[in-house]
Amino acid sequence: MSAHGVTRRLAQADVSIPSTSSWSKLPLIGGGLAAAGAAGSAAFGLADHGQLFFSYLVAFLFFVSIAIGGLFFVLVNHLSRAGWGVVVRRLAENLMGTLPLFLLLFVPIAFGLHDLYHWAHHEAVAGDPVLAGKAVYLNPTFFLIRGFAFLVLWSAAGLWFLRTSVAQDSSGEPCLTRRMQMASAPMTLLFAVTVTLAAFDWIMSLEPHWFSTVFGVYFFSGCVVAVYATMILLVLALDRSRLLGNAVSIEHVHDLGKMLFAFVAFWAYIAFSQFMLIWYANLPEETIWYSQRWDNSWRGISIFLAVGHFIVPFFFLLSRAIKRNRTLLACGAAWMLFIHLVDVHWLVMPTHHREGFHFSLMDPAAILFVGGLFLVVLGLGLKKQALVPLKDPRLSESLAFENF
Amino acid sequence: MKPKAATERPKSFGLVAQFDTPAAIFRACEKVRDAGYLRWDAHTPFPVHGLDKAMGLKPSRLPWISLVLALGGAATGLLLQWWTSAVEYPLIISGKPYFSWPAFVPVIFELSVLGGAAGAVFGMLFLNRLPQLYHALFRVDAFAKVTDDKFFISIEAADPRYDEQKTRKLLESAGASLVTVVEA
User: Fold this and answer.
1) CA B172 to CA A270: how far, in whole Å?
2) Are residues B142 and B123 in the same domain?
3) In a domain, B7, yes or no
4) Residues of B at the A interface (Cβ-Cβ below 8 Å)?
5) Which residue of chain B comes nearest to A2, CA vs CA?
């Protein structure tokens, strides 16, 4: 029936995780996975520092990209005063609520600078005019200050938006929504600059001679693909456990699917923009990055990425019927998360394995470790408050949302 | 030319019924749909959620028109560039092969967007039979309220189930506040 003039209310109990639910064990499960990952990393990694730190960097980037994407979702929903997304916004808020964890997880990278980054070697910079020229920016001290500063800024913003939104659950003050909208505009600007620089620092500087101005946008597009895929899986799984109290309908799932589809196309647009300009100009200092990923067994991964991150999901997610089918959309979202991991691996690992693609057991071990801790923080956050912003002024608009 | 018999010529365009609320037209649409009418339409001042389902409308063919034109645009972009750069007027540009597909992608992309967008806009106009400068419903004075605060269902006389008396009864029992015959 038409939703005009019908106001539905949600009770806190309908959209919270009860202690009997298996969801309340998520932190415990995460802890177990993290312990297994730590044991695995220790068992395989102590003999090979380089591999240990590179595997860790991939895992760190994969999960931090989901958290960064969560921050983006919340910012852009407030910025655009979106009505449809209110019922799923709390899940994005919980994903960005994991950002403080990455402040801690950045510490190992500080210890791995020498293994990860060529520019962190004094003697390499001294004999290299290009790196010497970049040393004002690319030096260990400034790198660490920037890294921690970005993570502090994102964490602070994430916690502020999360707490303000949760405060509204009890007070119902509409002025809190207004305050979040006001804050979202300057924060979006800061977000754009810091995510760009973080991508330059953490990934692009692995090849310190190489440069690409669009690289930050490339990393950002991966973050957004990752967060929409994660949110689709979270929404479908929580709804299956009947924890969303019918707040989320197939209409919201359909819209999340549309956003995932849009950012699959956006990722391809940015990836190709970077590739085509470098290919066309054909300057050796730029093409080196691609020949590193083409003139050896990395070529297979490069092709797999183009097909698996764009061509197949583009045509798969194009159809309205698939985006409105929970099972098929969940498959698409899970695939996009996997291929996003391949993307991050492809960005980072060719620096360590120049001879070609190499799979190490430390890769899954690091994923288990970081992913386990991510699930601990996410699970604690999900348990702590309602899964839907209960008194958001636009909640009834979101509940009534329908696609045409 | 043989003149048509007077009985064959439809006496009127059909009936139009006025409803006062979105809920009323929503229920009325379900009744008209369940009665098995085929040539009829609902007119509202703003989109009413779920009305397409209440009317029993099939999914639009528009996405397919858009897809075909988008793929056509992509094919045009590819073939045109292949033919001009590799067949008809081959020039070596920055040492690249004649058929350098990465260089063709922007044009292929733009033409598929153009095709898809044009397909969506002109396909929509075509499926809606627009532009239409005249419609029999415009003769009904009350129908002007469709742009303000009233909701209407029109059933065409050409519908196989149309019967002026029975159809009028159906619309009245569905909660119409006004039922009028539309002159052809």
Assistant:
1) 58
2) no
3) no
4) 22-23, 26, 47-52, 54, 59, 63, 67, 94-96, 102-103, 105-106
5) B49
Sign of the four-CA dihedral A221, A222, A225, A228: negative
The 3-class secondary structure across B35-72, one letter per residue, is CCCCCEEEECCCCCCCHHHHCCCCCCCHHHHHHHHHHH
Residue after which a domain boundary falls, among B111, B127, B143: B127
Spell out the residues 6+ positions from residue A23 whose beta carbon is closer than 8 angstroms to its own: A17, A238, A241, A243, A379, A382, A383
Q: Tally A–B CB contacts below 8 A.
A: 41
Contacts with A320 from chain B: Cβ below 8 Å: 59, 63
Q: How far is B23 from chain A (nearest CA, A)?
A: 7
Residue B43 included in any domain:
yes
Number of domains in chain B: 2
Cis peptide before B131 (omega within 30 of 0): yes
The CA distance from A323 to the nearest CA of chain B, in Å, is: 14
Q: Which domain holds residue B86?
A: 62-127
| Yes or no, beta carbons of A5 and B23 under 8 Å apart | yes
Cβ neighbours of B103 in A, within 8 Å: 276, 280
Instruction: Looking at the structure, tell me whether residues B140 and B121 fall in a common domain.
Output: no
A163 beta partners: none
How many angstroms separate the first and last alpha carbons of chain A?
14
Interface predicted TM-score (ipTM): 0.84
Tens digit of each residue's pLDDT (9 = 90 or more) over B38-65: 999 999 999 998 899 999 999 889 999 9
User: Residue A402 has what pLDDT?
Assistant: 83
Q: Which residues of A touch B22 (CB under 8 A)?
A: 2, 4-5
**Nearest CB to B49 within list A3, A279, A320:** A3
Please name the member of B54, B63, B103 whose beta carbon is closest to the beta carbon of A280. Answer: B103
Closest CA to A205 of A121, A301, A99: A121
Give A-chain residues touching B26 at CB under 8 angstroms: 1-2
The answer to whether position B1 is within a domain reads no
Residue A141 in contact with partner chain B when CB distance is under 8 A: no
Closest CA in chain A for residue B22: A4
Residue B51 lies in a domain: yes
Shared domain for B84 and B141, answered yes or no, is no
- Residues B115 and B74: beta-carbon distance below 8 Å: yes
Question: Would you state the torsion angle of the CA atoms of residues B166, B167, B169, B171, taken in this order, to the nearest 10 degrees?
Answer: 170
Tokens of B157: 């006389």
- Chain segment A323-375, per-residue pLDDT in tens: 999 999 999 999 999 999 999 999 999 999 999 999 999 999 999 999 999 99
Per-residue pLDDT reduced to its tens digit, A2-21: 444 456 678 888 899 998 99
Domain positions in chain A are 21-399
What residues 310-339 of chain A have any CB closer than 8 A to a CB of chain B?
A: 318, 320
Exposure of A114 by Cβ count < 10 A (0-12 exposed, 13-18 middle, 19+ buried)? middle
